[in-house]
């Protein structure tokens, strides 16, 4: 069985993540994730970049019912001239 991701690990994901990591978040293994992606059945929208599948993290979090991290969309003004 594939070990899923914790809420902390989910919150630390970048804006887009790879297919295997997204699959882990859903409790899917690598083979099943790629099988679903190839057949158009992966439960999140996929972005193709050559042979690579990328998953938008906000859509993955929404599917899991996890709110986006509190820092999403905020800009850190420290160190910037305003």
Largest sheet data = 3 strands, antiparallel
Walk across the major sheet and give the strand order: 1-3-2
How many domains, in number, for the residues? 1
Helix-strand pattern:
HEHHEEH
Residue share in helix: 25-40%
Oligomer: single chain
Mean pLDDT: 86
Distance between the termini: 50 Å
Question: What is the count of β-strands?
Answer: 3
Strand-residue proportion: 5-15%
Number of helices in the DSSP assignment:
4
Structural class: alpha+beta
Uncertain segments are: none
Rg for CA atoms: 15 Å
Shape: globular
Identify the notable features of this structure and list them briefly.
single chain; 82 residues; alpha+beta; 3-stranded antiparallel β-sheet; 13% strand
Can you characterise this structure?
This protein is α+β, with helices and mostly antiparallel strands and 82 residues long. The chain has one domain. Helix content is 35%, strand content 13%. It contains four helices and three strands, in the order αβααββα. The chain has a three-stranded antiparallel β-sheet. The radius of gyration is 15 Å and the shape is globular. The chain starts with 6 loop residues before the first helix and ends in an 18-residue tail after the last helix. The mean pLDDT is 86.
């Amino acid at each position: 069985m594939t070990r899923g991701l914790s809420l902390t690990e989910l919150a630390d994901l970048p804006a887009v993540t790879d297919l295997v990591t997204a699959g882990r978040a859903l409790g899917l293994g690598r083979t099943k994730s790629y099988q679903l992606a190839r057949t158009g059945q992966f439960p999140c929208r996929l972005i193709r970049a050559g042979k690579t599948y990328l998953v938008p993290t906000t859509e993955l979090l929404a599917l899991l019912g996890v709110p986006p991290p509190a820092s999403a969309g905020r800009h850190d003004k420290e160190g910037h001239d305003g």
